[in-house]
Amino acid sequence: MDPKAEARVERRVVTALFVDVVGSTALTAALGPERLKRDLDRAFSELAGLIAAEGGVVEKYVGDAIHALFGAPIAHADDPHRALRAAWGCVRWTDRQEQGRVVFAVRVGVETGEAIVDLGAVADARQQMSVGACVNVAARLQQLADPGQILVGPVCHDATADVGEFADLGDIELRGLGRVRAWRFTGLAGRRAGRIPLVGREAELDLLALAARRARSARAVFALVSGPPGQGKTRLVEEFIDGLTDNAHILRARCRPAGELGARSPLREILASAAAPTAGDEAGIGDLIGGAAGLFNDATERDRVVTALAHSAGLSVSRDLASLPTSQRQDEVANAWRRYLAALARTRLVVLWVEDLHWAEAEVVQLLDRLTLGLDLPLLVIGTARPEFGIQGGMRPGGDRFFISLDALDEVNARALAEAAGSAGVAGLDRAGGNPLFIIELARARAVGAIDVPLTLHGVIGARLDELPSRDRELLQRAAIVGEVFTVDDAALLADRDPAEVAATLERLAELLYVHEVPGGFGFHHALLRDVAYSRLTTAARMRLHARYAHEGVGPQDVEAIAHHLWEALGPADADWVWQGSLDLAQLQARACEAHQTAGRRYADRFAYERAVETCRRALRFATAPRAVAVIERGLGDVLLASGDADEAWSHYMRARDLYREHGVDPPPDLYPTALEPPVYTSGMFRRCPDEPVIQALAAEGEVLARRLGDRASLARLLAIRAYQLHEAPALEEALQLSEEVADPTALQSFLVHAAILQIRAGDFAVARRIFERLDAMAAPVGPSAEHRFEFRAILALSTGQLAEAQRLADHVVAQSVARGPHLRTHAYREQAHVLLAQGDWPALRRVAADAERLVTEHPDTAFCYAVTTMRAFETVAHAMEGRRDQALVALRRAVEPLQAEPLERESVLLLAHAVLGRHDEVEGLIREVRARAGQVFWFFERMQVVALAMLQQWDAVQAALVPLERLAVRGNPYLDALVSAVREELAAKRDGGPPAEHRALRDLGYTGWSELLAYCPRPTG
After folding, report:
1. What is the dihedral of CA 958, 961, 965, 970, to 10 degrees?
2. How many CA atoms lie within 13 A of 906 on its CB side?
3. Which of 285, 550, 766, 1016 has the highest CB neighbour count under 10 A?
4. For the ranges 111-125, 344-358, 909-923, which has the lowest average pLDDT?
5. Could you give the 3-state DSSP secondary structure of residue 449?
6. For residues 989 and 997, what is the distance between their CA atoms, to the nearest angstrom?
7. What gap in Å lies between CA 520 and CA 751, rounded to an integer?
8. What are the start and end residues of each CATH 3.40.50.300 domain in the chain?
9. Which residues is 775 bridged to in the sheet?
10. In the sheet where 485-486 sits, what is the strand order?
11. How many angstroms separate the CA atoms of 259 and 238, rounded?
């Protein structure tokens, strides 16, 4: 189609009217064709005049019928009403025909709906102007009507039910269209249809003021203001904000649909608002650091908070956060925002205003929910949203939740608002239904000469758009491609006009309140104004404009926006015919595929996992080559794994592997360890973990491939997986040797940490120490990864007799954990608890356990691991050692609750907890369970087993269980030497009747707790 001709074609909401003159065929014989034609011409002229008087346009004559449109080429706010008035006038025209003339009857069909309209055709010789379902329905209804009847379709009836009288005909069969609900129209109801002050919202303002008073008392409050579009949500909050005293820190952000104007995260807007609240400048990482410097005295805490804030807002990517399991990352981010807002709120109330929450990513909503549930902080979060958000948003109820629903204005307030908006009169305000935007737009329409009452917001805005010259209207329609906010250059590009001319036009349109200026550009006066303007573009025009904007209007760094616009250009089903035969299609699809993959990773980096998964799935639509599909499948697996859906991630990894193999291509070797590490290292993430034989077969397949292709890094990771899963020491040794040969070992950091853990579990402490030293030589990590190393080093020191060093490391981890999320804080408490248990400081151990339990209680949404089991088990021990048997039993009942447990470590601490209460059967059951399941039992289980059996005085079992510990002790470990000696003393004293055991070597090292446990004789518990 010629571009100029295409520009005249729009998608419009119109009302189609068919008026058929009845009886002309029978009159031909009686009157003769010449006289009949004269009278028919006169009738058509008079009927057309009645239609035109109501604002309709006769598109064409079809035999003895007139086809007319209301809503094109000029829309009116009440086009369905106008069409019914015209239909009623045509029916009544029959009774007013002059005596002596041929009397004609008419029958009418009317329906409203979307149609494609050629706005230029009306200027030609009655060419076809509209195509749409509503046209076909109206034509069929007219054919079924009796003379003198007006039949109305469902959409038109719904739009005019308040101004007409109807008889319900039920569902009727329309030829070629199926069954359609219809009504017979029987008559009209006989009724015509700087900043405006806030009217009629006093009660809602009082609720917001109450919320602010509660927040000032250091209780975080969330106030949700909901209502349909145009109900005045933003205006209400503006009035409230203006009424606050200067003693409040205002932060503001707005959520937007995906891809709009770079798809800036609302979290990023919050930080920008805090960094530059008046200028509206965008905050970068430098601004963040500078702003945080004055909020946090401790540099470590400041860096941790800034890192998490910047990552969650999409300003930077933290590898350390990205490497954490999903729940821990969410905890870290939520904790950072709490500390940041707490720092801002030290001297005054913080008001965080987030608009349009119905467009927010799920992660943003969850964060706001967590920030305002049970938090002692002078923080007031105000969100505005459409009504459906209250059902779908997932906000939990609570005492500090205010849900403010904006209802329609009553008649008195509606009249006051209309007068304030400049209306010369108040007639017809009930048509607005109390919606403030309806009222305001009605008043403005009347001010420029419109005389009828808008019935729907689409009608109001459509009528206002058609008051503009066609070039201005076309400019807004094309600018709507970008979104609610756009720049002068955006509009100029899409309209093919000079930027200077466009700037002048937009300034004029701002004066007329179609748009308003925003930093760096313009925004539509209302989001729905943009929606109506956008909806008028034809499908083909929309797609081509989206493609052009993605190519020429979006910077290469804004991949989320590129992906959004290319999806709108190529994703809908209509793309098949729109782009048919286009030479650009293959290139566009390739770019769309790449953009969606990159955008998916970006969304995942800032934890917007739902959007990340959706974007990656869309990428599959554009991939054609099997290898490209396999790459996307793997990327989708990465995103799903990061989101915590390990089962689905596994299926996509396997699909990627199968695609490679089915087409005779080797999968990338690193696909195998990437897929296998989750079920081996973190099997608790799976609802149904892959079977062991499957894992082993894939690991073997990956090893063969990695060896053949010389991929040392992948091979090292796979060998470590085998060692971790099957406890094969040679595999781990080979993996460590290979890792020395990898050019860039930073990719192996996670592998090395797990290798060190394996060595600690196996009791090879010297090798574990060397691995930690090697990790130290790499780029120093920041954030949680660095503390992760300290945690296991504390265990290493404790296991080798360096109690003072273990205490120092544990205290350091606990101190650093203050700025961390609750899950990682329990890790720190676990290391400290191990040290306190070794020292026998039972009161301190109970206090640490209580701190950990408080974290669990205060964060019900956080998934906790076996670290919590350790704390509960050690609390059981502490109570029992201090003689509080009942409290010990309570703690034990909590300890056996299933969490995200890892094998053997959980069982080890439960072994000690059962033993200290004399529970023989449970101890023996745990020992049988572990030995039946594990090919190799780690040394810490052997230690717990020996001590537990000694407490229960199972001396023959103690003798047998002591052998593995004695083998480890000969390596020169002072702690194990002392522990073995103490056990031998107990054997000699209690089994053989020798002198009392003193455990001098163990006590000299400071391990008083283990000495007391070995000497303890518990009373059996049922």
Report:
1. 90
2. 19
3. 550
4. 111-125
5. coil
6. 6
7. 47
8. 202-405
9. none
10. 485-486, 521-524, 515-518
11. 27
Q: What does the block give as tokens for 31? A: 């009157």
SS3 182: strand
Long-range Cβ contact pairs of 92-98 (< 8 A, separation 24 or more): 93/46, 93/47, 93/50, 94/148
Q: Between 104 and 522, where is the model more confident?
A: 522
Determine the Cα–Cα distance for residues 813 and 584; give it in Å rounded to an integer: 57
Cα gap 411→314, rounded to integer Å: 47
**The tokens of 393 are what?**
């948003």
- What residues are paired with 524 via a beta bridge? 515
Which CATH number applies to 3-188: 1.10.1740.10, 3.30.70.1230, 2.60.40.10, 3.40.50.300? 3.30.70.1230
| Mean pLDDT calculated for residue range 993-1021 | 91
By DSSP bridging, strand 349-355 and strand 248-254 are parallel
Which two three-digit tokens encode residue 271? 């930080």
pLDDT tens digits, 388-433:
786 555 677 777 889 999 988 888 888 888 888 776 555 556 656 6
Beta-sheet pairing, 379-385 with 221-226: parallel
718-751 pLDDT per residue, tens: 988 888 777 777 887 888 888 888 877 766 777 7
pLDDT at 390: 64
Rounded-to-integer distance, Cα 945 and Cα 929, Å: 13
What average pLDDT does range 589-607 have in this prediction? Answer: 90
Cβ atoms within 10 Å of 671's Cβ, excluding its own = 23
Neighbours of 439 (CB within 10 A): 33
The residue count of the chain comes to 1022
Q: How high does pLDDT run on average in the chain?
A: 84
The arithmetic mean of pLDDT across residues 306-313, rounded, is 88
Amino acid at 798: L
User: Torsion over CA of 388, 392, 393 and 399, rounded to 10 degrees?
Assistant: 90
Report the pLDDT value the prediction gives residue 692, as an integer from 0 to 100.
87
Place of tokens 């041929």: 102
Half-sphere exposure at residue 216, Cβ-oriented, CA atoms within 13 angstroms: 12
Domain with CATH 3.30.70.1230 in the chain: 3-188
Which of 332-341, 592-601, 891-900 has the lowest average pLDDT? 891-900
DSSP at 295: T
β-pairing, 521-524 vs 178-188, is: unpaired
Tell me the whole-structure pTM to 2 decimals.
0.74
Exposed / middle / buried, residue 448 (Cβ in 10 Å: 0-12, 13-18, 19+): exposed
Contact 952, 1018 (CB under 8 A): yes
Longest CA span, the chain:
139
Q: Select from 743, 764, 768, 765 the least CA-distant residue to 754.
A: 768
Residue 7 buriedness (CB in 10 A; 0-12 / 13-18 / 19+): buried
> In b/e form, how buried is each residue of 288-321, taking b as 16+ CB within 10 angstroms?
beebbeebbeeeebbbbbbbbbbbbbbbeebebb
CA–CA–CA angle 400, 405, 411 (5° rounding)? 145
Categorise residue 733: left if φ over 0, alpha if ψ from -120 to 50, beta otherwise.
Answer: alpha
| CA dihedral sign of residues 937, 938, 939, 945 | negative
Q: How many CB atoms lie within 10 A of CB 177?
A: 13
Asked if residues 220 and 400 have their Cβ atoms less than 8 Å apart, the reply is yes
Of the candidates 1006, 904, 881, 1020, which has an alpha carbon nearest to the alpha carbon of residue 952?
1020
Which residues lie below 8 Å from residue 899, measured CB to CB, with a gap of 6+?
864, 865, 866, 868, 869, 906
Q: Tell which CATH classification among 3.40.50.300, 3.40.50.2000, 3.40.630.30, 3.30.70.1450 matches the domain 202-405.
A: 3.40.50.300
